[in-house]
Specification:
It is built from eight helices and seven strands, in the order αβαβαβαββααβαβα. Helices cover 39% and strands 18% of the residues.
């Protein structure tokens, strides 16, 4: 006899995610779920995105980590509201965590909430948080073979960011192969090559996100 524990957990999560989605729709807040591995530059990309959009939109961030508040403190230092979620070992955020986090925020005053999920290319793909879209960040140093090794995260993403492109000359990264692999897995997802630290490519990424946000207004 086998007992499937995953399905009841996901069913409960999905039910709560729909409640989150209804709340976000009511408040006309766009929620972006950011998926990536540790060291890919999630927080740096969030900071670059904030810099590109903060004059137009009111933004808040929910930071998901196993432990610490290092990243949320970096966000707060830029004058942006940030809520820290420490999962205590769990490898992903869940919808009930998001619901509790947004209770700290005033959604009536916000246009965009950026969710930095726990650094992981596997677990977060299964858990709907009620977000409007998922974006996947890969950094050049991680290698061009990640779409082959972790296809699921690329398949669920509405957009893919290739970060740290300024390091391309240093690493043996086959960009042509990477683009081809992503396009095979998810032909609808645009790919944005950026350097979050230098600003290269950030405006094109921010323009796409701006269009997604305006579409729900």
């Amino acid at each position: 006899m086998e007992i499937d524990l995953k399905q009841p957990i996901l069913k409960k999560n999905d039910t709560l995610a729909e409640r989150n989605r209804a709340l976000f729709a009511e408040k006309k807040v766009f929620v972006l779920n950011i998926l990536a591995s540790p060291g890919s530059g999630k927080t740096s990309t969030i900071l670059a995105t904030i810099e590109a959009l903060r004059d137009e939109f009111n933004i808040a961030v929910i930071e998901g980590d196993i432990a610490s508040s290092v990243d949320s403190e970096r966000i707060k230092a830029q004058g942006i509201p940030a809520v820290q979620i420490n999962t205590g070992g769990a490898c992903h955020l869940e919808s009930d965590m998001i619901r509790r986090a947004v209770e700290v925020l005033n959604l009536d005053d916000l246009d965009l909430v950026l969710l930095e999920n726990v650094g992981n290319l596997v677990c977060p793909t299964d858990f709907d948080l009620g977000e409007n879209a998922k974006v996947m960040i890969l950094s050049v140093p991680e290698g061009d073979d990640k779409p082959l090794k972790y296809p699921g995260v690329f398949q669920v993403a509405q957009a893919v960011i290739l970060n740290k492109v300024d390091t391309m000359p240093v690493f043996n990264f086959n960009n042509e192969a990477f683009v081809s692999e992503v396009n095979q897995l998810n032909p609808a997802a645009p790919i944005f090559p950026i350097s979050a630290t230098t600003g290269e490519g950030v405006e094109a990424w921010a323009s796409w996100l701006r269009d997604q946000m305006l579409a729900i207004q």
